[in-house]
Amino acid sequence: MTLAKVNKNKRLPQTSYSDKSVNSERLSGDASRRSAKVKAIKAEAKRRNINLITTIVTCAAVLVFIAATILAAIYLPQIAIYVPIVALGLALALQKYTASFVAFFVITFSKIYDLGDRIRIGNTKGDVRHIGLLHTTLEEVGEDEKLGGEVTGRLISVPNLIILDQPVLNYSKDYSPGFEPISSDYMFDEVRIPITTDSNVEKATHLLERIMKSQDEVYLKQARQVFQDGYPRFLDEAMSGPRVLVFVEPQHIWIKGKFVAPLKSRNDLRSSILLQFIKETKAGSDIKLA
Fold it and tell me: Of 3.40.50.720, 2.30.30.60, 3.40.50.1110, 3.10.150.10, which CATH number belongs to 40-173?
């Protein structure tokens, strides 16, 4: 397989009025989603206060139980022999609950994920809706090849202990240029287009790059304003690295472009890029879809 980088020094056409109108509508939609996320975060803050109270009460109950067991062993020697048996039975019966309880503090203090993050734990993918003492509630997100990464509407309760032995993929976090972990609603996504081997590949790559830059320009500006000097590291590549790559296969040629989009708007943006590419290639005959 052959890999070729596209020359980016060519002057690109100006963004059309229709593109600006679409970007403005898309930006408005993103603002409403962010407002909803802020409300959800406030609601989660209240739930966390309740969780804190529950944690204190639970810890107090455990300490009382331990103290009562010790006192019983001291003042009632005849039942002391049963204490280790009861303790062992409880340890075996509650080991998973204990692991989930401990994992709650791991999640909370290490910030593996937060409310609203899109994560994958093992084979489970979803948006975090609640972090409880024993379980994390996710709003399920379909696999890209099945449902385009869209929310399915189903809730999944995942035991917290899973994070102790399963990798956690967080789509909503990244590193800044100073290697500080930050929350980011933006990510790189990819659009792939197969064209025939007799197509004008250079023209196709320049066309795709122009369309992507006109479509995701609003998000790049938005991300720079939001993060300023602490922007996610992948934005460096978005602003200065190659955006379109070419892969050659025996039957056809793939042109693959990377664009920047908010996590939950990337499917809409990908569709918009593809529709515009198809529309513009129909005007000529030197670019043919395979």
Answer: 2.30.30.60
Query: In this predicted structure, what is the pLDDT of residue 57?
Result: 79
Residues 168-203 have pLDDT tens digits of 888 777 665 555 666 667 777 788 889 888 888 888
Q: For the structural domain made of 3-33+185-281, what CATH number should be given? A: 3.30.70.100
The half-sphere exposure of 141 on its side-chain side, counting CA atoms within 13 A, is: 20
What value does the mean pLDDT take over residues 18-44?
Answer: 58
Q: Give the domain ranges of the chain.
A: 3-33+185-281, 40-173
CB proximity list for 143: less than 8 A, separation 6 or greater = 125, 149
